[in-house]
Amino acid sequence: MPREVFSGRIVVVNAMESLSTALTYLSSCQSIGFDTETRPNFTKDSHNKMSLMQLSCDDTCFLIRLNKFKKMPHILEAFLKNPIVTKIGLSLRDDFHGLRSLTNISPDSFIDLQTYVKQFGIEEMSLRKIYAILFGKRISKSQQKSNWDAEYLTESQKRYAALDAWSCLRIYQYLDIHNETLQHIS
Hints:
This protein is α/β, with parallel strands linked by helices.
């Protein structure tokens, strides 16, 4: 299968001013892709804090370097609770667990693709497999276990992170548009 690539703009956010700009831009969207990354931990019973949050619309993905902020920014908390913008992710339970270590908020208007795709007869639970079924393209996971707390993200990390969030949005949009015509496709 050919490899999928996010061809939109990737913006790294590591300061309040750029975060405010990003959230203003995303607030005009009806739905966005959502994902998070945490530096892998290879020690038993030890967990790292969430390093990165990816929020993507059709043309732009914002990579929010949570590890660069002293605490969870209030404007980001407010955005995650915003019921007007639907946030689309995969395996959100893991993401919400990571968020709880940073904030006590209850995120609102999230759709977990692992639940959503079942109504279309898709039994696969991984992003790679769901994407391959719908679009006939593969998503590389080669950067998944990289150091998300590094001082600077590599171009490969940026592309990987943006693709993960954007592909969640793309899956949702495709299924939402084809809701009437899609029967069981698996």
